[in-house]
Amino acid sequence: MAALVLSQPLGRAAEAPPALNAAEIRLALEKLNVLGRVLYVAAHPDDENTGLISYFANGALFETAYLSLTRGDGGQNLIGPELSEQLGVIRTQELLAARRIDHGRQFFTRANDFGFSKSAEETLRIWDREKILADVVWTIRRFRPDVILTRFPPDDDKTHGHHTASALLAREAFTAAADPKRFPEQLKFVPPWQATRVLWNTSQFFFRARNVPFDPTGLIEVPGGGYQPLLGKSYPEISAASRTMHKSQGFGVSIERGERLEYFKPLEGQPVEGGNLFSGIDTTWARVPKAAALSEKIRAIISAYDLKNPAASAPALLELRKSLLALGDNPWAQEKLAAVDELIGGCLGLHLEAVIAKAAARPGDTVELQLEAINRSAVPVKFKSVRLLTAGEATDVDSALAPDQLMTKKLPLPIPDTMPFTQPYWLREPGTHGTFAVADQMLIGRPENPPPLPVQFTLEIAGEEIVYNVEPRFRRVDRVEGEVSEPLVIAPPLFVELPRPVFVFGTTAPKAVSVRVIASAEAVAGSIALEAPAGWKVEPASASIDLRGSESEMSCTFQITPPAQAGDATLRAIFTPTGAKPGPAFTRKRIAYPHIEPQTLISRAEARLVRAGIENRAALVGYLPGAGDAIPESLREIGSDVQLLSDGEVKAENLAKFDAIVIGVRAANVHSARVSAWTPELLAYARRGGVVVMQYTTTPGPTPDQLPFPLKVSRDRVTDENAEVRFLAPGHPVLNFPNKITAADFSGWVQERGLYFPNEWDRAWVPILSANDPGEPPADGGLLIAPVEKGWFVYTGYSWFRELPAGVPGANRLIANIISLGKAPR
Hints:
With 826 residues, the protein is an alpha/beta fold. The chain is 22% helix and 29% strand. A hairpin with a 5-residue loop joins strand 14 and strand 15. 47% of the residues are buried.
């Protein structure tokens, strides 16, 4: 079933008619007679119970939504190198892909996933409790749920800070959303709303994780399995497909067919009667004044529906539409009106499309727009007019759509000068550590940007005018994928791509920086310069640009010389068009994976410059990739020649030339068999004087055949990036050669100290550092080093994959010591 019918936002015109098969139309007709809403609330992408969403949306046929407080920016990425805000964009799209499968809606708050937190108190302080509470209240007031469900309990002992905070905020928002004195600025757009109840959707997991027997006594049990014959799938099958969209987290799951029970504990509101979460809630048309008779009309449409001829239902749907219009601005009437309009289009097999001739356009441009419409039924349809919402008045078309005849019309589409460049709305302005900056109230909560250039098609169907909103998109043909449709990108005339977001200078030696310049317009001329603060020297002062043809490109090389003193600065790219004033240049980041909509991020072309005293004796480093990280480039920044190794190259005699071999992040988790195969050769290399560095793995950790000596990985972590770090082995070479490591080297760290530290290890391992979060015992297993005859084996849970790309000076100094161990005096 298409998400356009089952998951439409409130208060809008219908979207372009979805391509529904006859069984999906039948199920969508049934949904017209169900007037109930469920809001599921949790903290991150992947927290949602997709099984319950699948059941509510496709079985009970309630309007079902998931409110994820964050976009998952603080996690790790198993499918590529993107982290932080770019990872948040991926996980946003993964949630939307999941909702297209399970037919829920998706909402967010402005909360930033700043990293793991062990307490709700810390989480709410960093998020700015009132601001995120306002966003939860806003979502409740807009979506108007009858029942609110939380994935997590409102106490810290069963989970961690973000999770607990999500439940606390949901519970508080339940009351605040109904209070006109709370967040009154929202009342210009939405009225207060009182949901009926809040419940915690508990499970055996919360008890098993604490080694406590699960006792369902006193809990409400609801069957969550079952089969939807009109979709040909069970709810667990839909759920598994939905959850598997969280690919950046490696959340592919098997299908658990058959019955299953869901458990609930009431938190707020009216008590549940008879095990029915919707007890006391009228989910029929009787809840809408003067609308009770609609139930019988819809039942009659369903009874007469012909799977072989859906178009035969169009006249009755058009009559139902008149009844809905007579109800005025009632939210349920508006909701179902949009659904009916889309169903009418679906029954007729209507196809409406707006195709842009180019993949990218610039503010102030005019591009060619091709409108396409086809009516695949015998019901009379006339294409009355089209309105470009950025251009003003409608353009008359007034042409009948003959059955199964494609009609096309070309129009110029002007792009306003004020149109912002393509960038997720929550990333347009700098926010805080815990909260994104979004000034426009109507954007808050949306999963993604609204279409930049919406087009309204007005059709006359059997005498009734219906308006459909269509997003103009670029269409191309791929030799492998076939026809591909992509969002239009609003872009500057050119992009400047700096090779790295951070440049680290360990000495005063200059670095050559090759800058890639790519045209977005057909012709671009002018000059590019790199601007740095006083003390930093950039040569040449500028480079001339003359590009012909969109996507044509050239490279410019600049030499950057740092100052003698330590510090950091910002490097900015400046573009001066011929005959015009200079201004900031912009860079483009494309994110494309098969399971999500392609994304383009456009931001100012800037990089961080870091000057720090870093000695590095590891001239040549071999790298065995793990789950996608930027460590190789970071090691190159501090002077190592890094070579990525293939399986066939992992032979002791071949490795002898390397000063160190580094195993990538979570390699033992995602490439376990390969790591086991590498280990004998790595140990042979270490015994001859080499250095092997294994970066962190999640539980259960590396297997015994992947290590020289046993250790046990735990879930211990130090989340406070400012936590004191104590030296357990101050005389060890790793703290003294070639850089003298001091407490100052642990300042300026980002997000955390480290994660999944071992808590048990063989005596051969030497613990080097100790740290802990406030009120917790010391965690000593973050950096373990074992001598292996002439060489060394290092296991480290410190989060180098975050610290090094961020240019943290002390982290770079310590990693230089680790990979230089083979040169250190013993």
